[in-house]
Design the sequence.
């Protein structure tokens, strides 16, 4: 009887130690063919029969399959570390951070059109230099410093609000409404801080230029839909270009590659930037030159089932050198900025 019990315990131990596995299909990045592999069952994200990011003959397209009643996060975070070096070689370092927290709640979906509430949850910014840090956070009490009170009041009036968005299943934003109520709220908040009517109107007008339907449409277009409408294959590259300044003289080129699709995640890599450019102006014996360049690299991940962005981390390095020379000697100022641009930082 004891031997039988011992055998049973040994058998139980063997069964409990055996890891369950699952079989998944994925596209081999080297051959482009669909292959079947065995992986630990607990590492598999279940992929729906008809996911939002799917392939047809190896060509992947992106759409959205969001669920009514569910809320999807879209928090953007940026951290900039800047180093300036003067002609004598002395350096000055500074760090700035900013966070905009939003979420999207699906109210309804009819005829392929999503009715979505955009929740403006919170804004935070901080700056550090010379061992001192200042923070403006809508989730914290108003700062004591007078020069920060206005920023906090505007941000506080901006958050805690809702906008309504209509978007189709391909990610095209049809409309975003509800701005007027927020403008009124901000105007009232500024009224307590700015007594001059013209100054208050100017402040509100400035805000309207940076926070409006077109600006948000452009932002969501960049964040939510990356894969081209025509679709791409694993390993395929595509590029986009946008103006880096108002004149259009400098353009940021972004090169994308669809790295992989499988296990519920579509991953895209990004490189590119602004090639080094140099401008020179001379007056008499004096020559003033300015060179600048920008390089970026990182990854973007989407949920294969819903099409929603789960995580982005892009590193951007900007280098600028300004030189003045009289032909015999020269002096240079150098500025280097290393930035991390993230979406849903806590995502995987």
Sequence:
């Amino acid at each position: 009887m004891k031997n039988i019990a011992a055998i049973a315990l040994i058998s139980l131990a063997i069964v409990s130690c055996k890891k369950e596995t699952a079989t998944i299909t994925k596209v081999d990045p080297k051959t482009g063919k669909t292959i079947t592999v065995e992986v630990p069952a607990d590492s598999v994200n279940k992929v729906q029969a008809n996911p939002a990011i799917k392939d047809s003959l190896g060509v992947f397209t992106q759409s959205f399959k969001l669920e009514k009643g569910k809320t999807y996060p879209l928090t953007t975070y940026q951290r900039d570390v800047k180093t300036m070096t003067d002609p004598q070689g002395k350096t000055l370092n500074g760090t700035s951070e900013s966070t905009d927290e939003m979420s999207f709640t699906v109210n309804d979906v009819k005829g392929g059109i999503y009715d979505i509430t955009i929740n403006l949850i919170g804004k935070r910014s901080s700056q550090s230099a010379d061992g001192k840090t200042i923070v403006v956070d809508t989730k914290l009490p108003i700062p004591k410093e007078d020069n920060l009170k206005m920023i906090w009041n505007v941000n506080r009036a901006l958050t805690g609000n809702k906008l309504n968005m209509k978007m189709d299943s391909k990610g095209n934003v049809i409309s975003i409404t509800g701005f007027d109520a927020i403008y009124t709220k901000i105007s009232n908040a500024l009224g307590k801080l700015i007594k001059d009517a013209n100054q208050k109107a100017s402040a509100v007008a400035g805000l309207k230029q940076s926070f409006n339907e077109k600006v948000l449409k452009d932002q969501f277009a960049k964040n939510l839909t990356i894969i081209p409408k025509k679709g791409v294959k694993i390993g395929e590259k595509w590029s986009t270009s946008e103006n880096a300044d108002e004149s259009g003289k400098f353009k940021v080129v972004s090169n994308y590659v669809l790295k992989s699709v499988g296990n519920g995640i579509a991953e895209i890599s990004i490189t590119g930037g602004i090639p080094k450019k140099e401008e020179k102006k001379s007056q008499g014996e004096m020559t003033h030159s300015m060179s600048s360049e920008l390089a970026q690299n990182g990854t973007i991940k989407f949920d294969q089932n819903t099409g929603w962005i789960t995580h982005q981390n892009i590193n951007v390095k900007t280098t600028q050198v300004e030189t003045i020379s009289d032909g015999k000697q020269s002096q240079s100022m150098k500025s280097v900025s290393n930035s991390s641009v993230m979406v849903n930082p806590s995502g995987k």
In short: The first strand starts at residue 21 and ends at 27. Residues 1-19, 22-36 have pLDDT under 50 and may be disordered. The two ends are 51 Å apart (CA to CA). The helical segments are 2-17, 146-158, 179-191, 197-210, 213-224.
